[in-house]
Amino acid sequence: MRSRPRRSPSRSDLRVIHHLRAAGVSVVVDARGAGVPVVLHWGRDLGPLDDEDLAALAAASTPAVPPSSIDVPFRLTLAAGLGDGWTGRPALQFSRRGDTPAARAARAPRLRAVRERREDRAEASALRMTVRDDEAAVTVELDLELTAQGLLRSRATVHNDGVEPLDLAAAGILLPIPARAGDLLDFTGLWARERRPIRGPLRDGIHARESRHGRGGHDNAFVLAAGTPGFSFEAGEVWAVHAAWSGDTAVWAERSALGPSTLAAQELLAPGEVVVDAGRRHTGAWSVAVYSAEGLNGISDRTHAWVRSWQAPPPRPRPLTLNTWEAVYFDQSLEKLEPLIAAAAEVGVERFVLDDGWFLGRRDDRRALGDWTVDPQVWPQGLGPLVERVHAAGMQFGLWVEPEMISADSALAREHPEWMLGRGGDLEWRFQRALDLSAPGAADHVFECLDALLRTYDIAFLKWDHNRDLLHARAHAQTAAVYALIDRLRAAHPGVEIESCASGGARLDIGMLPHVDRVWPSDCNDPVERQRIHAWTTLLLPPEYLGAHVGAPEAHTTGRTAATSFRLGTALFGSAGIEWNVAQTSEGERAQLAAWADEYRRRRDLLHSGRVVRIDTDDPAVVAHGVVAHDRSEALFSVATVDTPAAALPPALRFPGLDADARYRVAPVPIADGPRIIADQDPPWYRDGGIELPGRLLAETGLPMPLLAPEQLLLLEFTRL
Ligand code: GLA
């Protein structure tokens, strides 16, 4: 199965087919010969294959030469382009500055293999394939890594070995997908409506999703999945890609008329945005590719396990958080917040976060971004008294910042007008500009402001916001700069947690994730929307990263009124919190919140470590999902109606993911005033407060659910007997 690792063999030595295997996935890469390596297989585990088998696989993968085509069998290489006879969209594109059109044409990349290196480590098998275009004087390293969880990462590094600068148009890798992966899923969205699925067939041509927001954007494709017809959470084979980058991105699926289909995810570069000077190199963003033979649940299984294997996962337990935004908006003062602190402590909040409105001159969203000192008019003694009160009430203190931005009406802009991206004619967005983090001194200045705040006050958490699109072809530099800025701050203040927020969920991706501890999936706290938003966000991100707050009964963003139990139950399945003026709630509501907070504390270990299982329901009005402990000893499931259920006798709901050979006690978990049920008589098991059933039956025949009224949530716990 393993071939010998090789060190810089000469070109003629390259005769190796690599078989990478992990967690039910095989990747076979033919790196023999002088051409760019080819992925012969990315998908289901092929079992152990010896060199002879691999050679046979390569032979069997060689196609015919069709009429009116190149005169050799077509090979879809990792860097396929015109030089290989690939007329589809290339993932790797560059041009030499100063070339005449003729020279440029001659230099359509003609890459030849130089060497490959393989390293098998516990966490991943890594292949680095070096290819070179001698005439263009460009060397490219193509990295493919199959992690222990079966996730395939890839990226390209382009070296400029020439004299003139090199303009990069694309720096990524093409992955092949089989013809049966003809069904596509990706996402679009709007503010407060992030990650709306788009489904459709993969037709001849390109299905491409490009983000030019300078952040993922509310309509970010997020994941592009191609699968067997009708693939779902529980069923079908799926090949999915994600661009692990928080700036502009391109993801696409292409079916060529020739036959082969490809999938790619990479950073999207604007013309001239990335120029590689002589002797320098540029490393493209990682593309994360995941195969699953068990539907979309298999995709989240792999990504969650991988993310959880990182060196610095978010500290656990994840504290119950209260954020002041929807409670008071800009109306801040110690007097106003004291009752909120008291009520938060009463219901069991563990972290109190002061949102936008605390800094110099910030009375509304029209000014003051950049002036990161405490406003003495609102906070005459600084934030000290507030922080003290929060600590005295037994909670941590957190603070909102938006460090990458600047208001035209700010002391900072008056002092450094040159730090505003697109000075003068640029469009404002939420009355603000982006701060040019690569302008000399700008990033240092922001660092010093934040560093001073973190030194002055005992701050456990920063909600790091980003409330506009860049609208400027500087996304690469800006994104690299924000990663560096966050990392510098974290190095200086290792205990401080950071949340990535961007007008809600416009910047949550696997590029940002290693730099932060939490993401804010949406400004919408309406549970109907949150059920959907979380269903898709957890495709990649584990629930412990996802801020999930209980809002007011009437959602501020939609005006929809939701039952307390629906709101509480929905917020339980994330990094839970409250976005509601609990000082203005009734004693009864606070008692319900306190009971829910206890429930969260009791179950968060399971919720933040277990396997996320989403159920394919027969009725789209029913959203059902759960978290199953890795040893399958327990699970918590949520069954919610996001619309009016279709049937008076809802079909039995199956609960997959449990231990088929064990028996479980299934019992409803009371939450606030419980779900509202429309029935003259509930199913007996429900009336009796639970039932014992074998896991196999729960997965196959299921349980009849009580008929939930629209917009209700039923919580069920499963305990192995
Ligand atoms: C953005 C965030 C909100 C809130 C406001 C404050 O919209 O998404 O949660 O912090 O900014 O201005």
From TrEMBL:
One Pfam family of this chain: Melibiase
Domain of life assignment: Bacteria
GO biological process, one term: carbohydrate catabolic process
Keywords: Glycosidase, Hydrolase
PROSITE patterns tied to this protein: ALPHA_GALACTOSIDASE
Enzyme Commission code(s) on record: 3.2.1.22
Catalytic activity annotation: Hydrolysis of terminal, non-reducing alpha-D-galactose residues in alpha-D-galactosides, including galactose oligosaccharides, galactomannans and galactolipids
Annotated substrate binding sites: 191, 355-356, 430, 463-467, 501, 523
Family listed: Belongs to the glycosyl hydrolase.
Protein name: Alpha-galactosidase
Species whose genome carries this gene: Microbacterium hominis
